[in-house]
Amino acid sequence: MENYVLENSRLGKGAQGQVFLAKNKDDGKTYVLKKVECTDETEATKAFKEAMALQDLRHEYICGYKDFFVTWDKEEAAIIVCIVMEYYKMGDLDRLLKKKRKKNEAIEELILKKWCGQMIEALAFVHNRKVIHRDLKPSNIFLTDDLTLSLGDFGVATIMDDARTKARTTVGSINWMAPEVLEKPYDERSDVWSLGCIILEMATCGFLDTQSVTQVLMEIKQDPARLEEVLETVSKTYSPDLSQVIRTMLRRNFQQRPTAIELVELPYIKACLALSNSALSGKKKEKQKAAKDCPTDKGVPGVMAFINENKDNEISVTRALKYLNTLSAPQIDEAGKKVIVIGCMKTNVSELALQMEACRLLLTLTAAADAESDADDYLFSEEVIRAVTLAMKAHPSSRDFQNIACSLLKTIALSEHAAGLIGKLGGIQDILSALRTHPSDAEVCANCCSALSYLTINDKNLDIMREEKGVVDLINAMETHETNPSVMDFTCSALWGLSLEDENVEMMAARSLAKLLLKAITDHKKHADVVKNACMALSSLVAESEESAYLAHNSDGINIVASGYEVHKGNPDVVEYVCSFFMDLSETEDILEDMKASAKIKDIIKEVKVKYASNEDIMGPIEVVEAKITGGKPPPNRPSSARPKGK
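^ thats the sequence. predicted structure below, dont judge the formating
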């Protein structure tokens, strides 16, 4: 302390300690001096060692650290670790945002992008040195004289290896704190959440005041739908790619959240980095290698060898992949598949045309594979899934790419093991992101809903859909594309699977799903799959929700479903779920009384018993309905309800 003279006033006091302005006696410059109080000598020694790690953090976008020392504070009667850092007279980002909010003034996207690039570059730098900030917030990001951002106030940082092995009490501010920090061990991706909150603040300062944004930051930890509401307004001012980046950074499950290093691979972030001429932007050299045409006369092996030799030339690789996609059934071995994924996709994430052709080829290969017997095939591996989902994050605005990627994930999900991996690696969130980014595109919605219907066969994926409030997205798709049979088919199928979860059933009832399902049957009566899947979802829904059962009944559900039966009475799949719906509807006593008076139901029972006497799946529920209506004895081994098979 003898080298510093403290100013009279204290700058502030936080969870980590007291902050003062201090003048250095040697150079006469003003610095910020932070005093961190320790309970004993052991804690002080540990804190000092951790603080010393900050000396390596020399970067243009990181607040410089001048000095570290331990002293005894007589007034506090405590051991104090002192951290001396640069002073920024322009203040911090928090002060700037408050000024913007007061004027309802948005930050220009060009400036926001430049600041995003600077913050992510700084974060990638510290994470590479195994340091987690743990306390990222606007008041810890400082402004230089030329309005460059500088990450600061690391305090006594947590070393990564320590953070991964045990959960430590955070010293951060709760508004920007990642959901996992207080609950479980965490890692550097918790900083990514905090940075995502900061970017969201920057993007909303034109329409949210301080109180409102504080409320939003708390709510999005519990409800992803709240984030979507805010991003809908953000997208009116900024590009959809910015919303996608924020959405990616604010994934509640930190294991599905990208690291700062992975964020750098996204084209939008590369564009942000390029604004400050960052080496991380991966700017191409001015002299691009001349593109070559692949040797089509040497067969598939020759083309694969060409791709491997020219994998650093994206134009040549794209041409070669495009040629392979003209072949009906190209035979590519495991080594070749790895070249496509690792050599092509992972090293050229920002190249949309290349990613499109690579995914098309992978889709062809995966569709030809047997998902169960070929479960060890590289096509169903974690590496392939990671490459596809990274490309989805990189190109959110391309509806063509999102279509092909969702189709590929759906095909990969035919492997039960791979379906679990897709959920674990964040693929469900990527599909939901595509659904949210292209809500008015019927083809994208159909492909997304189709992929989700396959993925929700996995129990853990059901949990992810519940946490993400995916039911809301599916119902939104139904309402937006009610005239499109493909969207209605796949949304009904996916909603059927999601009806296993009580929380989902509550959301379905709140959105009057039973009425929407009946409308789907009415509007698409000729489409057997729509009628079948709508009846499946209805059956499961009314079995779990009395509110939905009454809504279905009061919406003329008996007659509507009976009319669907009349069109498809020769289709046993449709008939099975028509009968299941009637069985589950009959569980409600008031409704059963009306069913007893229905001539249509009696006619259906009579006809089904003759036509499908040998079909146990149909006879089980229809005999239950008959027994209830006539007051007869129910059949043995009475089925409970039409629950999704294989769940």
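The mean pLDDT is 89.
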